[in-house]
Each structure stands twice: as structure tokens, then as C-alpha cells.
Amino acid sequence: MAHDHRRAISPTPASTPQSRRNEWRAALSLLPHLWEFRSRVILALTLLVAAKLANVSVPLVLKHVIDSLDATAAVLAVPLALLAAYGALRFSTTLFGELRDVVFVRVTQRAARRIALSVFRHLHSLSLRFHLDRQTGGMSRDIERGTRGVSTLLSYMLFSIIPVVLEFALVAVILIQRFDWRFPAVTFSAVVLYIGFTVGVTEWRTDHRRRTNELDSRANTRAIDSLLNYETVKYFNNEEFEAKRYDEALQRFEAAAVRSEMSLGVLNIGQSLIIAVAVTLLMILAAGGVAAKTLTLGDLVLVNALLIQLYIPLNFLGMVYREIKQSLADIHRMFRLLGEHREVEDRPNAVALSVGKGAGAKAIAFEHVDFSYDPNRQILFDVSFDMPAGSKVAVVGHSGSGKSTLARLLYRFYDVGNGRIAIDGIDLRDLKQGSLRAAIGIVPQDTVLFNNTIYYNILYGRPDASRDEVIEAARAAHIHDFVETLPDKYEARVGERGLKLSGGEKQRVAIARAILKNPSILIFDEATSALDSKTEQAIQAELEQIAQGRTTLVIAHRLSTIMDADQILVMDGGRIIERGSHRELLAAGGAYAQMWALQQQEEAGEDGVGAAVQASPEMTAA
């Protein structure tokens, strides 16, 4: 298998100018979501401005309250009115801020929802090659963090950066109007120094955070992979081995997380030092002014309150900048999934294949098909055969001969390298994938079910089917009687990947699902391989019945199940080495005849062992 796709979504080790440009490009793609809700955005920004005006007015009112309490000019009514105004402004700051969040929350949640849905749909549109290479645990973390990053970025960009700039401008106006040049000079110098320090250290920290998130995704991938393969872990008594591997991943994550937190400590200490020095200098200047009678006590309180109001959001700005940087990285990582190339796409002029009632069986033709999963290893060589409408064609051969690849190509999970596959004379590449796959039903060898109910898993074949149709399909697949013995009947849950059911029960659910779909083309990929001989014989009759009037491709291991096929293809090394009916191939005395003879011997041996077991009292007792 090619590994280009795994490399394509692997994280970048460090922040580069190119990666930063890509991150901001991903952020710009969020603008259409803001434009769609522009009235809400404008209202939210209006409430934001109102909240900041109220916030900056609080120190001004407080100054007048302090000055009015001067012993020489105290009038009882004045402080009460000012104190009432002070309380109202304090409340208004919170009120407008909360109203702003209430108005804007739909914008962020809708954007996050739509982008997550776009990624989800895109992942389903990618080729099977991508999904064979994927690491589900890490990819799910990327989507989760990216979706959260959308909400964070939209909120912080609008409601953290803009407010800080606005508040700084308002404080600057007050300082310039009411105080001498030294006050704004110290304030502006501190702000410039603070922002420069924050940006510089945060850039350094971002690499640590990125590395931490990568290791977090890897640890999560390892854990999920191990838990999904729970039975295999138990079979080989490898619980401690898996725990050790997981702990190794956690140790690397722990070390990266510690470095990330240490760098955060450096940032916070530096920020606090800059603020403390600036506030101390300004309080010294203000205290000197009060002593010289050029400033009042109210001015001293005003300077202190303004600076605290300015530096609190600035301190918050450091965190905001970190979160914005992280959100950009997370969003970019998620958007890289959206950028994954669709290996199989509908052509602009693709047509729909007629499906559903009255569509009839389809004629299929493989014409000189070559195919390889990897350029260095070709799987199929010049494969040609016809499947007339309503016919049954079986494919046999040793493992790795290319049998299942035929089904994958017919489903168009991959495109052929050379030659073509046609349905009713139309090249698969000229058909819309949705209509093509709607026309095909498959019972795979390895049936994987959703972690849901038996009813849901059968209904999945045709989600708009009625309950009676689902039960009828279950009867046809000989699973209805078994389901009725369960306490929850059709509402019984099958567990992760259907592990609560036996192999034969899962296979019968898959057969019921295919029956319910009612397709024009059927593929049985060793469909009865997990069934015992008695059940296989019972279901074989049903499979033959549902195949009537449909074009059927049977990939078989047991040759006794395909004796009635119109044509049998024998494959070896990706080539068709024999073809004909069962009788014709036996008469030819070639590879098929040898396989038949071998299976007959094996079945005779099994029958002999079964008879010996029944005849021997000791073995029966055992």
C-alpha cells in the first residue's frame, strides 16, 4: 500500500512561515460564516462597545466619588448619586458582555457544526486507500480540536482582540487629556514591551504546544487501536505489553506537557514583572502629583483603576494570543483533512445509473483491466470477462490471487490502471458514484457491524424501509428466529464491530442487509465462509433465490456453493487462468479440477472424523 496519505496528514514538526501562512488562510475561510450572520455580528460588536464604554467610565465615576468625599466639599447627595451611577456602570459592563455572548453563540456553534460536517463528509468521500492508511484515534482528536478551535478563534478574534484595542484607545485618550506626558509615555512603553514579550515567548511556546498535541494524538491512537483489538490482546496475553506501549506514549506526552507548562511559567512571570514595574512607576508619579497638589486623591485612584483595567485584558491578551495561535494550528490541521485529494471523483459530465424498481439486472464487462495498489506490485493483469444481465459469475483462486480486488473495483473504491469496467456499456468512471453503489449489494467475508441494534444494522441496507420489510429480510436470511430468542429481540445491541454476535450471526445480518437493499447487482465475497455446513445449505438456497433476476458476482472458497454458476473464473497471480462452467472445468482437468478434488478429500476427511466421534463412547464423553 502507498503511504503518501499518512505522510500528507502528519503534523509539521515546527512552525514555519509557510505553515503560519496556511494557518491564517484556514482562518480566512471562516469569514463566510461571519457574513451569513452579519446582523448578529454587528449587534454583538455594538454590545461590546457599550460594555467597554461602561467599563472605562467606572474609574472616572470613582474619581469623582473620591474627590466629592473631600472634607471641604462633601455634600451627601452627590456621593449617593455617583455611587448609584458607579453600581449601574459596573452592572452594565457585565450585562452588555453577557448579552454579547448570547447573541454571538449561534454564530460560533453554527460555524463549528458546518465545518465539522464538511470534514466528516469529505472523509467519507476519500478513497479506500486513504482509510486503510488512516489512524482513527489521532484523526478523531484532530477533528475534535479543530472544531473547538473554530469556536475559540471566532470568539477571541472578535471579543478579545477588538476590546483590548478599544479599551487601550479609550485609556490613552483619558491619560493624554488629564495627565502630563510621563503617564501615557510609561503606559505606552509598558504595553509595547508587554506585547512584544508575549508574542516572542508565545511563538517559542507554540512549538511545545504543537509537539504536546501530536504526542497526545499518538497516545490516543495507540489506546484506541489496542481497545478495538481487545480480543487479540487477550488471545496472546499481551495486556502488559500493550500497557507498556501506551505508557511509553504517555511518558513522551508527559515530558512535552511539562516543558509546555514550564514555558507558560516563564511567560506569566515576565508579563507580571512588566505590569508590576509599570504600575509602580505610575503610582510613584501620581503620588508625587498628590503631594505637590497638582493631582487629587481621585486622580491617584483613577490612574490605578485605569491601569488595572488596561492590564487585566492585556494579561488576558497573552492567553488569547496563545489560544488563537493554538486554534489556528488546530484548524489548519483539521483543514488539511479537507485538503486530502479525492482519488476517486465524479467526472463533471457523469451520468446516473438507473436503480430501483424496474431498473432490471445490469450487464457488466471487465475489459483488459490492469490494477495495482502500489506501483511496485501489480495485482491484476489484463483481466477480461463478461457478465450478461441476470447471470451468475463465480471467481475462485488461492488467497492473494486478486479475487476480492474485482469487487473493490466494481464498487469503484479504486479506479483501474488500464482498461475499463463497464455497466450496461457505460464506463464506471462516467457514472455517478452514488448511483453506482446504490445498484450494488454486497455480503462481505468480514462483516463489521455498527455498535447499535440488530434492527438498525439490517435497516442500514435501506434506511427508508418499513419494519415489516426489515423483518422479512431477516426471515429470508434465516436470522429472525434467532433474534426472537433474544431478550431485547431486534433492539438487542451487537457491541463494538458486532462482537456480541458469532461470525455466522454477523454474516446473516449482512445477508439480511443486502436482501433489504434490493440491488440490481449482488456481490457475495465468500458470504457463507463463517457459517456451519447446515446453516450454509439453508442460506445457500435463499442466496440463489435472491440472486434470481440480478447480476451476481460470487467470490468463493467452497466450490460446492458455485456449481450452478453460469461461468466460473479461476484466478492465479492476478490473471484468469481458466474459465467455463463447473462441468467444463472438471472435464478440462486443470487447476479447478485439482481444487475440487482437494476439497472433496477434505470434506470426506471431516465426515470421517465426525462419524468416528459419534461411534466412540470415550470421545463422546470427552
Task: Name the structural class.
Answer: alpha/beta
CATH homologous superfamily of the domain at 8-14 and 24-338, by name? ABC transporter type 1, transmembrane domain
User: What is the general shape?
Assistant: elongated
Portion of residues in helices?
55-70%
Show unreliable segments.
1-14, 611-622
The CATH architecture of the domain at 8-14 and 24-338 can be named as: Up-down Bundle
Give the oligomer, counting copies of the same chain as homo and different chains as hetero. single chain
Distance between the amino and carboxyl termini: 47 Å
Average pLDDT confidence is 76
Find the CATH topology of the domain at 8-14 and 24-338: ABC transporter transmembrane region fold
Number of E-state strands: 10
Question: What's the gist of this structure?
Answer:
With 622 residues, the protein is of the alpha/beta class. It is built from 21 helices and ten strands.
Can you tell me about this structure?
This protein has 622 residues and is an alpha/beta fold. It has a domain at 8-14 and 24-338: ABC transporter transmembrane region fold, CATH 1.20.1560.10. The chain contains 21 helices and ten strands. The strands form two sheets. It has a six-stranded mixed beta sheet. β4 and β5 form a beta hairpin. α7 (136-178) runs antiparallel to α11 (297-338) and α15 (467-476) crosses α17 (503-517). The model is unreliable at 1-14 and 611-622 (pLDDT under 50).
